[in-house]
Amino acid sequence: MRTCPAPAPGRARTPLSAASDWTFDLIERYHEVIRAAAERHGLDTYPNQLEIISAEQMMDAYASVGMPVNYRHWSYGKEFIATEKRYRRGHMGLAYEIVINSNPCISYLMEENTTVMQALVIAHAAYGHNSFFKGNYLFRMWTDASSIIDYLVYARNYVAECEERHGQEAVETLLDSCHALANFGVDRYRRPSRRTLAQEMTERQVREAHAQQQVNDLWRTVPVRGEKAGVAEAAQRFPAEPQENLLYFFEKSAPLLEPWQREVVRIVRKVAQYFYPQRQTQVMNEGWATFWHHRLLNSLYDEGQLTDGAMLEWMTSHTNVIYQPPVNHPAYSGINPYALGFAMYSDMRRICEQPTDEDRAWFPDIAGAPWLPTLDHAMRNYKDESFIGQFLSPRLMREMRLFAIHDDDRRGELEVSAIHDAAGYQRLRQSLSQQYDLGTREPNIQVWNVNLRGDRTLTLRHSQYRDRPLADATAEVLRHVARLWGFGVTLESVDNAGAVSRRWSVGAPA
Amino acid sequence: MALQIIDRRLSGKNKSIGNRERFLRRYKEQVRDAVRRAIDDRGIRDIERSENITIPRKDISEPLFQHGRGGARDTVHPGNTEYLQGDRIARPPGGASGAGSGQPGDSGEGDDDFSFTLSKEEFLQLFFEDLALPHLLRTQIGDNPQWKSHRAGFTHDGTPNNLSIVRSMRGALGRRIAVGHGPRRTLAEARAQLAVLEQAPPDSDAELAHMAALQEAIGVLERRIERIPYLDPIDLRFRNRVRVPIPSSKAVMFCLMDVSGSMDQARKDLAKRFFILLYLFLTRHYEKIDIVFIRHHTQAQEVDEAGFFHSTETGGTVVSSALVLMQQIIVARYPTSEWNLYGAQASDGDNYSNDSVRCRELLADGILPLVRYFAYVQVVEEEQNLWTEYQQLAQLQANFAIRKATAADQIYPVFRNLFRKQGAAA
């Protein structure tokens, strides 16, 4: 990583054309100067692949969670129909870009965009997001950019094959159940091993053959020696320890699943795992990309590559993207991750370059340090939660006029627990950081026990976080759980004191 | 950092179509209900059109484990203008305090119904699902049957363009092996003998002679093997094609409509609705089907499609005139040996009084024995003598059905009922 940007070459004689209609040649020339600027700033990226697509294809990509290929499922059809309708009615503009964490990194450019917008997208997606995907520790650990497309192609074909063999309906209900639990199909501590597609395929066959034998903890009929049997089985728990990866548990231990069903569970689990880092780095990722398109395009302007008109055009859309409506605004719907991320990276750069005394007190490590390595370090080693916990500065809190609300359902009123003043900075920062912690955003539900001696009922345990109950859809989800497990399922909600406060039960599926 | 720019605009259109089909299949029941409702409100001319369909959103939600309302939570919001630490705020209605809790995606949409547009094809597909012409048989091959060319193995002769090279060469190879087998074996034996003799120096003249004889024999055999032709006319194989006649199932539908004065605008509208459904159904499902339009008041006349649906003529009523005309047309143009015949008649049941009996006789003796199916739809509730006569007939004849449809929303169920697939539920 460079400590400061390399000097720019001499000023360009004539700026690049800002004609509204783009051409392939023009895109290439824009890309070339953006690439050079990114290189001077030391951005490390995967090779780029730009794909020009139409609006309809953009909606296609939208509908299948942003991936270029995916298995077929009605929910993607629903998503597509909804997107299309909103788009047709003009309720929403399509995103200018979709970028896929793969190697080479695929960025979609929509054909409707003007030349300048294409340049913005290239800077934002092909260099901003791309370098984030390559650098951030979560993505490095959890996703394998080089094999994801291959894996999705495999998943699509496998699901299609299952549909042919076992019927669309059977596959669809299984996928429904898996999707309901997708957020609980993630290994949070164990990192997945990297595999090529060929390895996946061979391992699948071995796995399928072997997996059926792995579930028979429940079916074990080999007699245990007399005197110890009673004691051992009474004390025996299954699983031995609570498990938080529900899909993994079903894939490995659900007694009635067929081998192909286990494989489908696995596919959903793998895809969920792939998206796990994205859900944890929204602010950082979008902020980083926004920061860099802003930085790169500005440096191009300084070099005389962009016309004033081009500058105004992308700035308009930039300002729209980072607009944060205040809390009493009708359009307010939470904190805009683009705005927060962009503001934080910009603020960090300011702390590096022009630190105040307050900054020196709060950030002794980075105040006055070179900004490029500081930002790079932050991008690589944090996720939203820790990034905000570490780098949200008092000055930014004042600028955004942040305040924290404490909402306790036992009281009739909300309480303002902290505002942007000396007494509140720490608490504000902590609250905001927790707001981005997946662990608190999603309920904590784990596999607790299986009734091995009786009717094989599965017990899940929900540990309440600050007395927050589960939503109404819980019973519905439990039916999906029961379908995967094959026998009855009980869910216990346990409060802070350890007492079961609520219980849901679903019988074995018919 | 290599760059690739790929133009994908032309590839992969409609990638989501599979997902859309799955969605429609899953919500078929709701969609079908919506289609039914839609058809009742539509004017005659725009039946064939795309349609907006609405499904309650709760029916299509995907459940997830999520936090519900309640408990304690801390949220951070921007844009503080008035609050100080420790201030108390009344709880906003609707639990808006959860807006900042990380699910901003949900909050933009609200709980209204999920609505979308069915394309024209999808609409008609659902519309005419499970319907078919009853008793449609493959009639025998007509005078000018259609022929279809089928592959039928290989033959020894044919035109060069049908020459199957692989087959021919395989035959040639086999023949060369077979014909050359004997000589080659003798040749190998002779060579082996010669080799044995040549190892030891020849002692006697007899042995020398034997060697010479062997050499000569070898020469003869070699020439003989060489003479086996590489490719012989008997090796040639030609792809064979045979012409097979295709049995055709030709069908004709007679549409008979009463346009007399007693048929007021609303009744005509109902009748036309019925025939438009029939017309759409036929043109959509059967490519080769003739449709004959007959309208009548006191006289019947054969008209084209536009005249049938859109003309405005009136007069008295003699229903039998239409049946007579139908019979004449059958005799003249549609011999029953070649055609599957169908008839559909719509009327308000008002008829010149002595004529109804004649109608029944015409049907029973003249038409019903010829046709596969004849449906009568009456567009008023009131039962006049035509209905009574027809009712007697319907009890006797299996291929004759009568129904009443007195309001626009009954047309579709009656239509489905008349043309449902055998064995399928209505």
Give the topology.
The complex is a heterodimer of chains A (510) and B (426).
Chain A: H1 24-40, E1 48-53, H2 55-63, H3 74-89, E2 97-100, E3 105-110, H4 115-135, H5 137-142, H6 148-166, H7 168-180, H8 197-214, H9 226-235, H10 246-253, H11 259-280, H12 282-302, H13 308-321, H14 337-353, H15 357-362, H16 371-381, H17 384-391, H18 394-400, E4 403-408, E5 413-419, H19 425-435, H20 438-441, E6 444-450, E7 458-463, H21 474-485, E8 489-494, E9 500-506
Parallel strand pairs in A: 1-3, 7-8
Antiparallel strand pairs in A: 2-3, 4-5, 6-7, 8-9
Helix pairs in contact in A: 1-4, 1-12, 2-3, 4-12, 6-7, 6-11, 7-11, 7-21, 8-11, 10-11, 12-13, 12-14, 14-16, 17-19
Chain B: E1 3-7, H1 17-26, H2 28-41, E2 51-55, E3 72-77, E4 88-90, H3 104-107, E5 114-118, H4 120-127, E6 146-155, H5 165-199, H6 205-227, E7 238-246, E8 250-258, H7 265-285, E9 289-296, E10 300-303, H8 305-310, H9 319-333, E11 339-347, H10 355-367, E12 373-378, H11 385-396, E13 400-404, H12 408-419
Parallel strand pairs in B: 8-9, 8-11, 11-12, 12-13
Antiparallel strand pairs in B: 2-5, 6-7, 9-10
Helix pairs in contact in B: 2-12, 5-6, 7-12, 9-10, 10-11
Kindly describe this structure.
The complex is a heterodimer of chains A (510) and B (426). In chain A, the strands form three sheets. Chain A has a four-stranded mixed beta sheet with strand order 6-7-8-9, with helices on one face. Chain A has a three-stranded mixed beta sheet with strand order 1-3-2. In chain A, 53% of the residues lie in helices and 11% in strands. The longest helix of chain A has 22 residues. Chain A contains 21 helices and nine strands. Chain A has four domains: 150 residues, no CATH class; 115 residues, no CATH class; 118 residues, no CATH class; 64 residues. In chain A, helix 7 runs parallel beside helix 11. Chain B folds into three domains: 50 residues, no CATH class; 81 residues; 170 residues, von Willebrand factor, type A domain (Rossmann fold). In chain B, 41% of the residues lie in helices and 20% in strands. In chain B, the strands form three sheets. In chain B, strands 10-9-8-11-12-13 form a six-stranded mixed beta sheet, sandwiched between helices. In chain B, strand 12, helix 11 and strand 13 form a beta-alpha-beta unit. The interface between A and B is large, with 99 and 66 residues. Strand 1 of chain A pairs parallel with strand 1 of chain B, so a sheet runs across the interface.
